[in-house]
Write a structure and sequence with these properties.
Elements lengths: L2 H12 L1 H11 L4 E5 L5 E5 L5 E3 L5 H7 L8 E4 L2 H5 L1 H10 L7 E2 L10 H6 L4 E5 L3 H7 L1 H7 L3 E5 L5 H15 L3 H22 L9 E5 L11 E3 L4 H7 L3 E2 L9 E3 L2 H7 L3 E6 L20 H12 L8 H4 L3 E5 L8 H12 L9 H12 L9 E3 L5
Parallel strand pairs: 3-4, 3-6, 4-5, 6-7, 8-10, 8-12, 12-13
Antiparallel strand pairs: 1-2, 9-11, 13-14
Organism: Pontivivens marinum
InterPro entries: ABC_Transporter_SBP, ABC_transptr_periplasmic_BD
Keywords: Signal
C-alpha cells in the first residue's frame, strides 16, 4: 500500500467515531429536491450523516465520492459484497475495520429486510438499486420509510449501466455534497468510454464478432448456461465492438439457454464471468477474480472450464478467444475497464494502444482508497 493511502486510512480509522458524531450534529439540515433514476421526485437531507445501502456493492460508488472513508456515513447495508466479493471486502476492511460493525440488514427485496432496524439505526437516507423498485413499491417500504422521515433514492449501475452510471454518480454527489468528486469521476468515465466509442463507431457490423457471455461460468459446475441479453454485460459487449449472442433471445437482462444452442452456433468469442465465490459456493469451478486472485489459479480454472465436455471443440477455445472477466463489473461504475478489455480482445489491431491494466491502476490511484492488485480478467493460455 502506498504511504499516502496508509496515512490516510490510519487517520480515519482512529477518528471514525468522532467523524460520525460530528456529521450527525453539524451537517447542514438543508433539504433539497432531487429526481432519482426511477424518475421519482424526492426530498432528501443534503449531506446526510447516516445512510443505509440496499446493496453492499454500492460501496464501489460511495468510494468514488467519500474517498477518505466510504463507510463514514453507512449505518446499515446488505452483506452481498461480504459474501460475493470477499476480496474487495477484505481490502476495505483492512483500511476501515470499523466497517465490520455496520448493521447487516439482508435483502430489501425480501421479507428478511428489517424495516424497524433501518428506522432505529437513525438513517436519514436509504439508497437502493433500480432493480429493487418494484418490490419496494409493492411491499410499501418506500411509504413506510417516508412516514418515518427516511428518504429513499434509486440509482442504477446494473440495469442500464452505460446510460445511468453518470446520472447515478451525479445524483449521489449532489446528495452527499461531493459534487466536485462526482464531476471529476464522471469526466474521467466519459473520456475512458470515448476511447472505445471513437474506434468502434468506425467498425462495420459485419466485422464485429459474435460473443457468447457465460454468466457466472462454473459457479455451479453441473449447470450451464446463463447468459446476458441486450442489457448489462450484453450491452457492454455490443458497445465494445462485438455482437452479443444473447441479445437476440433476451431483450432484457438475460436468462438460461441450452448448451446445445451454444454449441450449434459456435460463437467466435466466449467470455465467462467469475469472482471469488469459493466460500459462497464450495466446489465451484468459477474463475476467482478479485483483489487476491493469482494468475496460476485463474489459468487453472479457465482451463477447467474450457475442458468441459464439448467445449474444446468450439472455435473460441481453439482460436485463443476464450476469456473471462470479473463478475462484479456488472454492478459497478468501473465497467468501462471491462469494456476496454473487451475491445482489446475483440479488435486487438484497432486497440493496440489501449491498456486496460493502466486504466485500472489509474482508477485506483486517482479515485479509490484501496490499492489495485489481484487479477480481474484473463485469456486462456495457449499451452493449457
Amino acid at each position: 500500500m502506498n504511504v499516502t493511502k496508509l496515512m490516510r486510512s490510519l487517520c480515519f480509522a482512529t477518528a471514525a467515531s468522532t467523524a460520525l458524531a460530528v456529521s450527525a450534529t453539524s451537517a447542514s439540515a438543508e433539504t433539497i429536491t432531487v429526481t432519482d433514476i426511477a424518475g421519482r421526485t424526492v426530498e432528501v437531507e443534503r449531506n446526510p450523516g447516516a445512510i443505509v445501502l440496499g446493496e453492499g456493492r454500492l460501496i464501489y460508488s460511495l468510494a468514488l465520492l467519500d474517498r477518505e472513508n466510504p463507510f463514514e456515513r453507512v449505518v446499515g447495508w446488505k452483506d452481498d459484497m461480504i459474501n460475493y466479493d470477499p476480496d474487495a471486502w477484505l481490502a476495505y476492511q483492512e483500511l476501515y475495520p470499523e466497517a465490520t460493525d455496520i448493521l447487516r440488514l439482508g435483502n430489501p427485496a425480501s421479507a428478511e429486510w428489517n424495516l424497524e432496524a433501518v428506522i432505529a439505526s437513525g438513517a436519514e437516507l436509504v439508497v437502493m438499486n433500480l432493480g429493487n423498485l418494484m418490490n419496494a413499491q409493492e411491499s410499501g417500504i418506500i411509504d413506510k420509510l417516508e412516514e418515518a422521515g427516511v428518504a429513499t433514492v434509486f440509482v442504477d449501475f446494473r440495469q442500464d449501466p452505460t446510460q445511468n452510471s453518470i446520472t447515478s454518480i451525479q445524483l449521489l454527489g449532489r446528495i452527499l455534497d461531493e459534487r466536485d468528486n462526482a464531476d471529476e469521476f464522471t469526466d474521467y468515465y466519459t473520456a475512458q468510454m470515448q476511447r472505445i466509442y471513437s474506434v468502434v463507431d468506425q467498425i462495420p457490423v459485419e466485422d464485429r464478432p459474435v460473443v457468447f457471455i457465460e454468466r457466472a461460468a462454473g459457479y455451479n459446475p453441473n449447470n450451464c448456461c446463463s447468459t446476458f441479453g441486450a442489457t448489462n454485460f450484453g450491452r457492454l459487449v455490443d458497445l465494445a465492438g462485438g455482437r452479443n449472442w444473447g441479445s437476440r433471445m433476451f431483450p432484457g437482462f438475460g436468462g438460461n439457454v441450452s448448451l446445445e444452442a451454444v454449441f450449434t452456433d459456435d460463437p467466435e468469442v466466449i467470455i465467462g464471468t467469475g469472482s471469488n465465490w469459493d466460500e459462497a459456493a464450495p466446489g465451484t469451478m468459477a474463475v476467482p477474480f478479485g483483489y487476491n486472485a493469482q494468475d496460476d489459479v485463474v489459468q487453472d480454472r479457465l482451463a477447467a472450464l474450457a475442458a468441459r465436455e464439448g467445449w474444446s471443440e468450439l472455435q473460441a477455445v481453439q482460436n485463443g478467444r476464450f476469456h473471462s472477466v470479473y463478475h462484479q463489473f456488472y454492478n459497478s461504475p468501473y465497467h468501462f475497464v471491462a469494456m476496454q478489455a473487451f475491445a482489446k480482445w475483440l479488435h486487438p489491431d484497432l486497440f493496440e494502444d489501449l491498456d486496460p491494466d493502466a486504466t485500472m491502476d489509474e482508477l485506483h490511484d486517482r479515485f479509490l482508497p484501496i490499492d489495485n492488485g489481484g487479477v480481474f480478467w484473463a485469456t486462456l493460455n495457449s499451452d493449457n
